[in-house]
Specification:
Helices cover about 20% and strands about 35% of the residues. Helix 1 crosses helix 2. The longest helix has 13 residues. The mean pLDDT is about 90.
Length: about 120
């Protein structure tokens, strides 16, 4: 088969996060939507048809849950960067993009957020 690009994604994972710099945001968790795209090594398609041979979506969800349960964040940039660092450090990942979006900031928008991409 010709070159195949494999991109896994987790879209709009909604979580409650203690995030923000304003007094009314501190200790008042907000809805945050997190999306992750993971570009895998081109040889990923040559692996067996088993969960252990690919990047696991559960890993992404669990790492995000663990990260947000252990601290508060002043900035979305910090949250986004820490998720990105965890994902890009995994075996077989060649590129990752993480998007965070606070959903309830303005009544006339779907959200405000940050998108970061990193390559190995």
């Amino acid at each position: 088969m010709a070159d195949v690009t494999t991109k896994l994604f987790l879209e709009e994972f909604e979580v409650m996060v203690d995030i923000g710099i304003h007094d009314f945001e501190i200790n008042n968790p907000q809805r945050v939507c997190i999306s992750v795209e993971v570009l895998l090594d081109p040889n990923a398609g040559d692996r067996p048809d088993e969960i252990g041979s690919t990047f696991d979506y559960d890993f992404i969800r669990l790492e995000i849950k663990n990260l947000i349960s252990n601290r508060r964040f002043n900035l979305q940039e910090t949250l986004c960067r820490l998720i990105l660092e965890k994902i890009i450090g995994q075996d077989g990942v060649t590129e990752a993009t993480v998007t965070t979006k606070k959903l309830d900031v303005y009544p006339d928008t779907n959200g405000v957020g940050v998108k970061m991409t990193s390559k190995k």
